[in-house]
From TrEMBL:
TM segment ranges: none
Protein name, as recorded: Cobalamin adenosyltransferase
Domain of life of the organism encoding this protein: Bacteria
Cited InterPro entries: GlcG_carb_metab_protein (IPR052517), PduO/GlcC-like (IPR005624), PduO/GlcC-like_sf (IPR038084)
Gene3D superfamilies: Haem-degrading domain
Organism: Terriglobus saanensis (strain ATCC BAA-1853 / DSM 23119 / SP1PR4)
């Protein structure tokens, strides 16, 4: 995952964010879950900076969309309590999506600032640009 890749992903996510009228924090992580780039759009919540970065990390750490992980981490689910692992870096809100190249996960995008559906839609738009 290069910086240019991350910028392209973020740019596509920003277009979607503008289209739905919701400013977002958008983070892109590499294959190791490390932050490559982050953007806080004008008007996006400051508190969502950390959440977007952690969504990207979570999605890469487990190679799963965070909305799917959220479904499995509810009380009685197979991953219940997972959000307390990894020193609190695990986010189980929608908005994180793994990025794949040739079938292999090479990074992830994390988006935060709207509803779960909005976050996921913006992350999908960014992922599609990769």
């Amino acid at each position: 995952m290069t910086l240019n890749d991350a910028r392209r992903i973020i740019a596509a996510a920003e277009v979607k964010s503008h289209a739905i009228g919701q400013p977002m924090n958008i983070a892109v992580a590499d294959a190791g879950g490390n932050l490559v780039s982050h953007v806080r759009m004008d008007g996006a919540w400051i508190g969502s900076i950390d959440i977007s970065i952690k969504k990207a990390y979570t999605s890469r750490a487990f190679d799963i969309a965070t909305k799917d992980l959220a479904t499995h981490s509810q009380s009685g689910g197979q991953f219940f309590g997972i959000n307390t692992s990894n020193d609190g870096r695990i986010m189980i809100f929608a908005g994180g999506i793994p990025l794949r190249k040739d079938g292999k996960v090479v990074g992830a995008i994390g988006v935060s600032g709207g509803s779960g559906e909005q976050d996921h839609a913006v992350a999908e738009a960014g992922a599609a640009a990769y």
